[in-house]
Amino acid sequence: MSAEPMIDVRRINVTFSVSRGFMAGRKPLRAVQEVDLVAHAGETLAIVGESGSGKTTLANAILNIHPPTSGEIFLDGRAVRSLGRKEFARQVQPVFQDPYSSLNPRRSVGATIMQPLIVHGIGDHVEREQKLLRILDLVGLPRRVVNALPHQLSGGQRQRVAIARALIIAPKLLVCDEPTSALDVSVQAQILNLLQDLRTELGLTYILITHNLAVVEHIASRVAVMYLGRIVEEASVEDLFRAPKHPYTIALLESALTPDPTLGLPDLGLSNVFPNPIDPPSGCHFHPRCNRTFAPCSRVAPRSIVSDGHRLECHLYDPDIMSAHNAHSGDL
Amino acid sequence: MQPSEPIPLRETRRRGRLARVIVERPGLVLGMLILGLIVLAAIFAPYLTPYDPYDQDIMSRRLPPVWNGWFLGDPQATMAHPFGTDNVGRDYWARLVYGARISLIVGFVSVAISGFIGSVVGISAGYFGGKVDLAANFLIQTRLAVPVILVALAAVAAFGGSLQMIILIAGLLLWDRAAVVTRTVTQQIAKRDFIKAAKALGASDLRIILTEILPNLAAPLAVILTVEMGQVILLEASLSFLGLGIPPPAPSWGLMLAEAKEDIFFAPWAIAIPGAALFLLVLSTSLVGDGLQKSRER
Ligand code: SF4
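C-alpha cells for the assembled complex are given below, as produced in the milestone run.
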C-alpha cells in the first residue's frame, strides 16, 4: 500500500438547516458527523447503513456535489478544496443507484457516454468516437446501442452506460451509490462482476455505498458501518464479518438479508423505530435500540477506539468506561 | 465480460406510424391540418387572391359571398368575390388571408417573447431554488396581479395602437403560465440523478440548463405555448375590435368584425366569416396543444 491514500476524509461534518414547519424556525440536521475515512489505491471501501444513516450525504460530500460543512478531504494528498471542479471531476466519478434516473432520457447512449469528453474538451471528434467504442467493449455493451435512447435499453444495459460514462475520462476513484439495488436480481451479479473486473483492469479505487451486506462481502476490502451520521465501526471485510464488535453491526449481520432494496435493511429485531435524525438520541445515538445498553450509554457519547485497524465507537470496548462502570456497580 | 443480457431494442416500424397517429390522435391531426392550412394561406396570400386587401371599390360594396348565390339565389353574389366584399368594397377573401398574417405574426412573436421570459424565470426558479425561487414566485405573483386588458388599454392610450405595441404587450405580460410550468418541470428534472452526474462532471450551471434541462422542457413548453398562442390571437382580435389594437385599414380579423358590426342585419356574413376564421384558428391551437399534452402523458 502506498504511503499516500487515494482518498483521505478527515473529520468531515455535513449539516443542513431544516425547516420544521410554519413559524417553527429552523434546526440543524447533522447528516454526517465527524467522519474519518481512508481508502488506498486499488481498495474497495464499503459504507453500509440504513436509509437515513447519512451514507448518501457522505457520498455527495466525497463527490463534492455537496461539499462538507467542515473538515477536509484529501485526494491523492491534495486538498479537494484547492482543486478546481473539473480537475476534481477528472479523478472522481459517480455511479448512481437508479440507471433510469441517472441517464438523460433525451440523449442517446453514444452522446451520453461522450458527454464527459465534451465537457472537459478532451480529443476531437474522431478521438472521441474511438474512445467511445473502446469503452463500449470494456463495459460489455454492443456497438449498435450507440444511437439508442435510454428507454430502449434494459436496466443492466443502462447501468453499463452509466459506468461507461463515469469511466471515459479515466478517473481514479469511483463512488458507487447502491450500484445494483435498482436492478433485477439476475443482473446484479453481472454488474458487480463487471465492477470487479474493471477495478483490476484499470487499477480503480471504489467507494461503495450500500445497504446490502452480500454485495459488501462480494467485492469490498474494507467496511465502514454508519449509523445516524457517524461511522460506528470500521474494519477489513474479513475482520468485520468474522468478528463484528459493535452491537449494531452484530444485529445487521445476524438479520437475514432481504433482496428487495426498497425495504432498506431487514427488520433487525431491534426495539424501537429508526430515530429522527433532527433529534438524535443523547449519548450513544444507538442506545434506544441497543440490546446491550447500560448506564453511560444515554449520557456520554462513545469515543473512537482503534486497535489493529479495527475502529469502533462503543462504550463496551472502552476500557476506561468499563472499569469505571464495573467499579461503580461493584459499590452497589 | 460479454454482453449477457438480451438486447430488447425496440423496433420502430416506419410504415403504419402515420396511420396510427391519425387513429389515436384525431384531434392533434385535425388541429395541425387546420393550423397548417392557415399558415400556408398567410404565407401564400398574394397567390391566393388577385385583389389587394386595401383596394376599395365603391361600385361593389357589401357583396354577399358566392354561396349566398348558390343557396339563396342572391343575384349579387359573384365568383369574382367569393367571400363577398365589405362596406367599402374591399375583397373579403383577400382581407381574410392577409389578416391571417397579422394574427399569426402576433401569435408567434409574442409567444416567442413570453416563452423566453417565462422559461428564464421558471428554469432559474426550479433549478436554483431557495432565494431565486422566492424572487421568481414574487415576480409571477406580481404579474398575475396585473390585469392584462387594463394595461393594454393604458399602453395603447399612451403610445397608440400598432402591431408592435400589441406584440410587446402580449409578450411582456403573458409569460406567467410558461414560468409556472417550466418551474415545476425543472424542479422534477433537477432532482434526477443525471443532473447530479453532470454536476459531478464539473459541468457549469449554464451547460446543465442548456443541455440537460432544456431538451426535457421542449415538450411541455410546446404544449403551453400553442395554447397560449390562441389566447394571444384572441387578445389581439379583442383589442382591435375595441379600436385599441391594430389601427385601420389593416385587415386584422378583429377590425373586420368591428367594421362589420353596424351591418349585422344587412350583411351578417361579414361578421360570420372573420368570426369563423378566428374560431378555427383558436380551435386549431387548442387541438394541437391538447393533442401534444395527451401524447406526452402516454
Ligand atoms: S455505547 Fe452503549 S448503546 Fe451504544 S452501542 Fe455500545 S453498548 Fe450499545
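Confidence is low (pLDDT under 50) at residues 258-264 of chain A. Chain A touches chain B through 50 residues (CB under 8 Å). Further analysis is deferred to the final report.
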